[in-house]
């Protein structure tokens, strides 16, 4: 409401606009009617130079060979981000995550220690379960590393054999192979 009063006050206090009787003059239509400009350049000289065509085209035309190279590289931005995340999930608790939360809220283990998730085990059984889990993880990691090393070794051997075969093929086609070090030295193969 105060904005309304402010607008009304501004309208009432503004001076009224009245039509003015100003004779309109026709615009200057010729160069003689236009006021003379004292410019430091000659417009006639600029017009002459623009009218004249250059001796050879500035861009060289469509037959010009490019002297540059453009390479567009797009990173797989989202995939790189997702691959860089280290998301290790733990096994789900018995009954699911929500049941575990309800159990934590409903059965506080401080008040009733036998209500916890590992209360079904004695201390010896709990140690056995823990050691079995730890050993299972370590054995799985050891076996995974062994398989990875085996496949890496196999790939390296195949690559060495490909290089040796390519060198033999290269050297067999050269008449001067006795002067080429890679062809004569068996250790370089």
Molecular structure report:
It is a single chain. The protein contains six helices and no strands. The chain has helices spanning 2-13, 43-51, 77-84, 97-106, 123-172, 181-184. The model has no long low-confidence stretch (mean pLDDT 76). The protein is mainly α and 189 residues long. The protein is flat, with a radius of gyration of 45 Å.
List keywords for this structure.
189 residues, mainly alpha, flat
Strand content: under 5%
Oligomeric category: single chain
Distance between the termini: 94 Å
Q: How many strands, which pairing sense, and closed or not: the largest β-sheet?
A: none
The proportion of residues forming helix, as a percent range, comes to 40-55%
Mean pLDDT across the residues is 76
Shape: flat
Class by helix and strand content? mainly alpha
Q: What are the low-pLDDT stretches, counting only 5+ consecutive residues below 50? A: none
Radius of gyration using CA atoms only: 45 Å
How many DSSP helices? 6
Q: Number of DSSP strands?
A: 0
The succession of helices and strands, N to C, reads HHHHHH
Concise synopsis of the structure shown:
Helix content is 49%, strand content 0%.
């Amino acid at each position: 409401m105060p904005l309304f009063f402010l607008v009304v006050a501004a309208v009432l206090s503004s001076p009224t606009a009245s039509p003015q009787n100003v004779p309109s003059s026709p615009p200057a239509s010729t160069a003689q009617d236009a006021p003379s400009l004292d410019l430091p350049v000659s417009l006639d000289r600029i017009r002459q130079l623009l009218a004249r065509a250059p001796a050879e085209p500035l861009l060289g035309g469509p037959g010009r060979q490019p002297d540059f190279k453009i390479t567009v590289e797009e990173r797989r931005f989202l995939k790189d981000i997702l691959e860089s995340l280290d998301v290790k999930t733990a096994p789900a608790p018995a009954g699911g995550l929500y049941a575990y939360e309800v159990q934590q809220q409903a059965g506080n283990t401080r008040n009733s220690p036998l209500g916890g998730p590992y209360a079904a085990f004695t201390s010896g059984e709990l140690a056995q379960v823990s050691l079995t889990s730890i050993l299972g993880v370590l054995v799985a990691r050891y076996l995974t590393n062994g398989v990875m090393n085996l496949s890496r070794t196999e790939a390296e051997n195949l690559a060495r054999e490909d290089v040796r075969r390519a060198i033999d093929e290269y050297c067999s086609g050269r008449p001067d192979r006795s002067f080429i070090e890679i062809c004569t030295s068996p250790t370089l193969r």
